[in-house]
Amino acid sequence: MLRLLLNILWFILGGWAMGLMWWLAGVIMFITIIGIPWGMSCFRIGLLAFWPFGRTVVQRETLGQHDAGTGLVGFVGNVLWFVLAGIWLAIGHLLEAIALAITIIGIPFAFQHLKLARITLAPIGTSIVAVDFLEQVRLKQ
């Protein structure tokens, strides 16, 4: 129930704006054709930007997944991503975090923006999972 309340407050206090920015980046990536893999990531991360509480971002290697996104291809893809779109989305999240950190009630939301700013730097090779699922994975290890 608390996560739902936090997600609703988040959405009202600006989460919708950054979610739309992620989706705009995704549309632009799709237009380029070659950017379709990045566009798919933008839409998934955009959903996280709309409703971040209760979900987190982890490296796929943490989940035992090894693919092209977790190796050299993923590194090159992340560099291209950062130059083309990542830096701008990171700046947006940082500005929102600063604005929200000014108020006491906005501090937890500012931390969520910082979490999202981190993924804007290198989204390839990551997965978005429920916090509860991640705890189960860590218990098995």
TrEMBL record:
<feature type="transmembrane region" description="Helical">
    <location>
        <begin position="30"/>
        <end position="51"/>
    </location>
</feature>
<feature type="transmembrane region" description="Helical">
    <location>
        <begin position="5"/>
        <end position="24"/>
    </location>
</feature>
<dbReference type="InterPro" id="IPR031308">
    <property type="entry name" value="UCP028777"/>
</dbReference>
<feature type="domain" description="Inner membrane component">
    <location>
        <begin position="76"/>
        <end position="125"/>
    </location>
</feature>
<feature type="transmembrane region" description="Helical">
    <location>
        <begin position="97"/>
        <end position="114"/>
    </location>
</feature>
<keyword id="KW-1133">Transmembrane helix</keyword>
<keyword id="KW-0472">Membrane</keyword>
<dbReference type="GO" id="GO:0005886">
    <property type="term" value="C:plasma membrane"/>
</dbReference>
<dbReference type="InterPro" id="IPR005185">
    <property type="entry name" value="YccF"/>
</dbReference>
<dbReference type="Pfam" id="PF03733">
    <property type="entry name" value="YccF"/>
</dbReference>
<feature type="transmembrane region" description="Helical">
    <location>
        <begin position="72"/>
        <end position="91"/>
    </location>
</feature>
<protein>
    <submittedName>
        <fullName>YccF domain-containing protein</fullName>
    </submittedName>
</protein>
<feature type="domain" description="Inner membrane component">
    <location>
        <begin position="5"/>
        <end position="55"/>
    </location>
</feature>
<keyword id="KW-0812">Transmembrane</keyword>
<dbReference type="InterPro" id="IPR052937">
    <property type="entry name" value="Inner_membrane_protein"/>
</dbReference>
